């Protein structure tokens, strides 16, 4: 099983009782730190056919702390897409409560998705002098909170109750606005690093 990691921040806790976390758990359509491009449609078949899938901590398959109850690929308007994921932690167990608390409180700040690649679903091409693997389809196995990540531009959106206070269309609009604001802040931070400290 392969794994892709991603950074997260901007956690907002609305209701701890249901243990619901909304997050961008992967960025598609751009080269990640592993030299891969996961295509925007790669998760679609798994979302359609395999949910719910387990939520883990650190890919520990012996300790399931929740499940993915919803997901979709969300275009960001810049050629990339993000994997919007709704996760319900198992608040009936101590491990589930601890995992939710760590994510909601920002103590664990990155995500990882675990998946298998079906035969023929990936191709390797040379781009800008480097070999890049394009993943067109995958078998999504699990999502984990982790300590280190590789997929850029992701964020935890909210931790809240099962029933949303706004319509799904409004939720999507808010998510997209937050993502664009986070991206703008990230670009400004990178520019400041170049000016003041040099790019690292």
Compact description:
With 200 residues, the protein is of the alpha+beta class.
Q: How is this structure best described in words?
A:
A hairpin with a 5-residue loop joins strand 5 and strand 6 (81-89). The longest helix is centred in the C-terminal third of the chain and has 29 residues, at 168-196. The chain is elongated. The protein is built from three helices and eleven strands. The strands form two sheets. The chain has an eight-stranded mixed sheet. It has a three-stranded mixed sheet with strand order 3-9-8, with no helix packed on it. It has one domain (2-196). The chain has helices at 44-49, 94-104, 168-196; strands at residues 2-7, 20-28, 36-38, 53-57, 66-75, 81-89, 110-116, 122-127, 130-135, 139-146, 156-160. Residues 152-170 and 190-200 have low confidence and may be disordered. 23% of the residues lie in helices and 37% in strands. It starts with a strand and ends with a helix. By secondary structure, the chain is α+β, with helices and mostly antiparallel strands.
